[in-house]
Amino acid sequence: MVDRTIDYIKAQDEAWIVDLSLLRPHPPWVAPEPYNDLYPPEDLMTFNPHPDRQTEADQHPFVRTYLNKPHYGAPPDDRKTARLKASYYGLMTKVDDNLGRLFDYLKASNQWDNTLIVFTSDHGEQIGDHWLIGKLGFFDASYHIPLIVRDPGAVETRGQVVQDFTENVDIMPTMLDWLGLDIPNQCDGRSLMPVLRTGNTPSNWRDAAHWEFDFRDVAEGEQMESELGLTQHQCTLNVLRDERYKYVHFTNLPPLFFDLEKDPGELHNLANDPEYLPKVLEYAQKMLSWRMNHDEQTLTHVALTEDGIVERRAERY
């Protein structure tokens, strides 16, 4: 893929854009030499589960169902899971090396200093955390993903790490802003250009991350729907996660609530704890407001009047 990307760039005589999607790390987790020996499995035996699978399953019906779903339960032997993790890490290093080849080409062809580079991923991986394999649900391990942006014009902030929340919906507005193009009104995300150029987020920046997981299985999901007592359309969950708390809402299952300051591993559901009930209500209301604020807005800034079409853009935040 990197070779073909370089060949494509070489063939361009005008400005170009490339969406390079590298498959690895991805099942099957088999790392070729020399990447298969870089990370000793015995050094990777640290996981984040409950003491046993049954305690994990008792946390919530959704977790119990996925622990028993084929290809999602982690191997019972931690040594096997550690070998999978070693291969996964090796494949990540292979990605690093191949991206290095691409960056070397950009430098050699004098394109490094006029190319915006955005490195991110579509999801994370459980690899034994909560006795699970794969990506699913509401856990940070599946959704906390990398975002590295190199703006050639942002010299003063080069290498700075920003801890504020961002989401994948911010990537397209960032690219459009960098190119000097208009950002469509219906975009849910915001440009990261102010952050890249100053190192600081605007005063009205988001204070949480949000995501949804649609777990309907059209091909083989009837048994799972039956076990959870859900219709196909009810197989979804929404998450609101800020610095301190995480709220998980299901359409027809009990909610989850975690105090991440006291429980960073997301091991103790506090949704029914009397001490936290006011917080659960507060975060349920926050989630409702977030969803309402991000309803379809393609034409909400347009009105038909006697004088013709009138447009007035509005800030979403």
Please tell me about this protein's structure.
The two termini are 39 Å apart. The protein is α+β, with helices and mostly antiparallel strands and 317 residues long. Helix content is 30%, strand content 13%. A 4-stranded antiparallel sheet has the order 3-4-5-6, covered by helices on one side. Strands 1-2 form a two-stranded antiparallel sheet. It has helices at residues 2-10, 53-57, 61-67, 78-108, 140-143, 171-178, 193-198, 222-228, 277-293, and strands spanning 117-120, 147-150, 208-214, 236-242, 245-250, 256-259, 302-305, 308-311. α1 runs parallel beside α4 (78-108).
Count of separate structural domains: 2
What CATH architecture label of the largest domain applies? 3-Layer(aba) Sandwich
Largest sheet: 4 strands, antiparallel
Rounded radius of gyration (Å): 22 Å
Poorly predicted regions: none
Structural class: alpha+beta
CATH domain class name of the largest domain:
Alpha Beta
Q: Could you state the order of secondary-structure elements as H and E?
A: HHHHEHEHHEHEEEHEE
Spatial separation of the terminal alpha carbons: 39 Å
The outline comes out as globular
CATH superfamily of the largest domain: Alkaline Phosphatase, subunit A
Spatially, the strands of the biggest sheet line up as 3-4-5-6
Query: Helix amount, in percent?
Result: 25-40%
